[in-house]
Amino acid sequence: MSAIELKKLTKTFQTKDHQVEALKDISLKIEEGEIYGIIGMSGAGKSTLVRCFNFLERPTKGQVLIEGKDLGELSEKELRRQRSDIAMIFQHFNLLSQKNVVDNISLPLIIQGVKKSEAKKRAKELLKIVELEDKEKAYPAQLSGGQKQRVAIARALASDPKILLCDEATSALDPRTTKSILELLKEINKNLNITIVMITHQMEVVREICQKVAIMEEGIVVEEGGVEEIFDTPKTKAAKRLILGDKSKDDDILQDSKVKELLKSGKKIRIVFTENSAFEPVVSNMILKFNTPINILGADTKNVGGIAKGEMLIQLTDETKNEEDIITYLKERGLKVEEVEEDV
Ligand SMILES: Nc1ncnc2c1ncn2[C@@H]1O[C@H](COP(=O)(O)OP(=O)(O)OP(=O)(O)O)[C@@H](O)[C@H]1O
């Protein structure tokens, strides 16, 4: 049984003068213990989707099943109970500024009816998990962004959730702090067996910790599957735009103006290789074998799910012969090869 299953989910907002179809017929499954990414440009429908996961937003059509239970069939009371299994963290942390760290974490438990002393004890235990034991008396204004998110994570864990929804949880943090929060989420996933859903527009977040990913565009899931597979060979235009146009690295090869100029002519090929592929000999052997010139437009390495991935963008020039044989040659040597369109 899946932790979360969406069946033909549709959400339409009715505004004064028009309708917005924020989600269109979305079906997907997130399995227990997974770290699952949902990625898309602004306005793609990510936040609406995640709000449907706990019925903060009721879908117009379709079903949300949490561990097989259809949320649409629950009474208000049952729904409140079910929601305590699903915790959420946000981009702007949503901490209470007049309360100190321990009170921020223990308050939801006290509201649920847990004794004050018990709730504070639990809050202190949670502070150990997020490595902030020394900050229990601090107020949010005295904490850095990363520390505030750690407090928000501790608060989210207070009700022993089975699922943690992270809505742009690292978008307001610098790259180093982002990394440390992602590490913490990985540990929580592993040690507490909590299913994590990462809603993000940051490709590096998905690359770093997710096993599966859904790519959203205009309310539709256009591509879904294993992160490695989708990052190596994105199929849809939306996925290619996000992955090949990933601006998360300053030296991203497709953003370089010289490369953009060169991209205007000739066939471009993107080659992806892992640490196991003998990349350099393959490319030089290819040039020797086919006795043909190619342009190397750029090369880069990225970390996808902990595996070093290299990519190289080459251009076959007007003098290049045997284009199809070259592509077959590279594929036969275990490299992933795809033609790059100009408008990615
Ligand atoms: N309450 C609402 N009323 C009307 N339209 C809405 C409402 N909430 C969202 N929308 C619309 O639904 C679409 C999807 O919005 P949503 O916030 O889910 O996208 P998103 O991918 O999370 O974007 P962002 O990353 O910018 O938050 C947008 O066109 C938005 O304007």
UniProtKB/TrEMBL annotation:
Q: Which UniProt keywords apply?
A: Amino-acid transport, ATP-binding, Cell membrane, Membrane, Nucleotide-binding, Translocase, Transport
Q: Which residues form the ABC transporter domain?
A: 4-243
Which is a Pfam family this sequence falls into?
ABC_tran
Matching entries from Gene3D superfamilies are given as: 3.30.70.260, P-loop containing nucleotide triphosphate hydrolases
Q: Which InterPro entries match?
A: AAA+_ATPase, ABC_transporter-like_ATP-bd, ABC_transporter-like_CS, ACT-like_dom_sf, MetN_ABC, MetN_ABC_transporter-like, NIL_domain, P-loop_NTPase
Q: Does the keyword Membrane apply?
A: yes
One example GO MF annotation: ATP binding
The organism that produces this protein has a lineage beginning with: Bacteria, Bacillati, Bacillota, Clostridia, Lachnospirales
Source species, please? Aequitasia blattaphilus
> Would you tell me the protein name for this molecule?
ATP-binding cassette domain-containing protein
